[in-house]
Amino acid sequence: MPLLQRIQQQFHDSVQAKQQALDVMAAPIERAVRLMTQCLQSGGKVMACGNGGSAADSQHFAAELLNRFEKERPPLAAIALTTDTSTLTSIANDYRFEDVFAKQIQALGRSGDVLLAISTSGNSLNVIEAIHVAHARGIRVVALTGRGGGKMNALLAADDLHLCVPVERTARIQEVHLLTIHCLCDGIDALILGEIQ
Ligand SMILES: O=C(CO)[C@@H](O)[C@H](O)[C@H](O)[C@H](O)COP(=O)(O)O
Ligand SMILES: [Zn+2]
After folding, report:
1. Binding site, residues?
2. What is the Å distance from ligand 1's center to 57 Cα?
3. Numbered residues of the known binding site for substrate
4. Ligand 1 closest atom vs CA 146
5. What angle do CA 156, 162, 164 make, to 5 degrees?
6. What is the domain-level CATH number for residue 120?
7. Which residues neighbour 33 within 8 Å (Cβ) at sequence distance 6 or greater?
C-alpha cells in the first residue's frame, strides 16, 4: 500500500473506531462525568494512572482539570501518579514496579476520591494493583480500557465505571481515550459552571 494510502487508512480507521465507540461509550462517559464532578464538588480529588501513552493521557487529563480546559473556572483537584521520577524509581527499585501507583494511592488517596485507571489492554499489573488499593480505601474507579477490558474488567466493583473502547488496536483505543478525556473535561466544566444539570 502506498504511503499516502496508509495515512488515509489510519484516518479512516480512527474515524470508524470513534463511531463504534460513540454507540457504547456515551452513556458511561456521562456517568463518569457526574461521578467526578460530585467528587470534586465534595472536596475529593481525581487521581489518574497508566503506562506509556496512558501515562501521557493521565498527565494530560490532570493538567486540564488542575489548570484549565476551555473555560475559566476555579482549579480542580487532580493529580497524575505518573510524574514524580523519584517516587516512581524508588518504589520500583525497592519494592516492585507493580506497586508504583498503588503505594501513592495508599499515601494520598482518601475515601470519596476517584481513580481514573487507564490501560488499553486492561492487563497492566501496576494499574491492577492501583485498583485493589483504591477499593480498599473507599475510592471509586473509572476504568478507561479497550479490547474488552482484560483482567481489569473482572476486577471492577459494582459502583465503579468501565469505559471500554470496543476495538482491538492499541493506537485506535488510545485515540478514543483522548476523546473520552476531553468529553470528561468538557462535561465537568459544564456541570461546575452550571451550564447543564
Ligand atoms: O503508546 C503506546 C502504544 O501506542 C505505548 O507506549 C503503550 O502505551 C505502552 O506499551 C503501554 O505499556 C501499554 O500498556 P496498556 O495500555 O496495555 O496498559
Ligand atoms: Zn502511542
Report:
1. 51-53, 60, 64, 93-94, 119-121, 124, 174, 182
2. 11
3. 51-53, 64, 93-94, 119-121, 124, 174
4. 16
5. 130
6. 3.40.50.10490
7. 183, 184, 187, 188, 191
CB 172 within 8 A of CB 148: no
- Smallest CA separation from ligand 1 atom 18, residue: 119
Could you tell me if 36 and 163 are in contact, meaning their C-beta atoms sit under 8 angstroms apart? no
With cell 491492577, the residue in question is 128
C-alpha cell at 95: 519494592
pLDDT tens, position by position, 50-65: 999 999 999 999 999 9
pLDDT 10s digits, 26-40? 999 999 999 999 999
**ipTM score:** 0.98
Q: Give 169's DSSP letter.
A: -
Using CA atoms, how far apart are residues 165 and 170, in angstroms rounded to an integer?
10
Q: Which domain holds residue 109?
A: 3-193
What SS3 state is found at 8? helix
